[in-house]
Amino acid sequence: MAADYQRCAELIRRADGLLVTAGAGIGVDSGLPDFRGPQGFWGVYPALGRARIAFEQIANPAAFARHPRLAWGFYGHRLNLYRHTIPHDGFRILRRIGEELPQGAFVFTSNVDGQFQKAGFAGELVAECHGSIHHLQCLDGCHDGIWPADGFQPELDEEACLLRSEFPLCPRCRGIARPNILMFGDWGWTAARSETQEARLHAWLQQVRHLLVIEVGAGTNIPTVRRLGERLQGQLIRINPTEPELPPGRGVSIAAGGLAALRAIDAYLV
Asked: Among 31, 105, 130, 135, which residue's CB has the most CB atoms within a 10 Å radius?
């Protein structure tokens, strides 16, 4: 694979702007779970496994209406997990590559974990197409406001996957708040924050003449991230251990984990 890594380094040197696109796979090297298949999901949340509740059923606004303590047990656990996770060194490598290019770097991710911001990427240069667990909105949609979840400190019964502490509340109607995340079967998601982020991304793309996309850990199950990289003009480096396939002539595909591949690429940039 040495020739592939050398080719990646050459593409970076030719670029004037870097778009980092990322799916859930980028978080695996930080210790974050990859909900690949129902058994993998239930291994992380055994209470949901015992009840045979699939990821698509709990990551759903209907779950908040039926059983809000269970829904917030799931999302509260994820919120606590992401708050305590330290982004792996691959994030630093991507940030440094972007800092050395004339137009810098922008991030487009389907992840809701806020790991890019935690790794030092400027918030105004990150587009989260599925929203953020670190922000809240009204479950009943009494208004279109979005606010930070900083004041919400969930206390959980992790064995039962239940929220034990008080619910986060909408500041207007005092009803239950939900994460500002696009869920399955979700017609109530408030998209304003993500739409503003994506408008910034499109404005940034207009300034870039020699775009390079580095995609890490984006699968085909929910292909939003992969499709964006393939649609844009420019070269694409796709890093994915199981689905590295790339359209002919579009760049370089690397069949490896994110951290290992980024470290190997970085070694050729010295």
From this structure: 105
Q: Which two tokens stand for residue 263?
A: 């470290």
Chain segment 158-200, per-residue pLDDT in tens: 999 999 999 999 999 999 999 999 999 999 999 999 999 999 9
What is the rounded distance in angstroms from the CA atom of residue 105 to the CA atom of residue 95? 7
- Residue 270 reports pLDDT greater than 90: no
* Tokens 């994030």 found at: 91
Say how far apart CA 213 and CA 233 lie, in whole Å. 9
| Per-residue pLDDT at 20 | 98
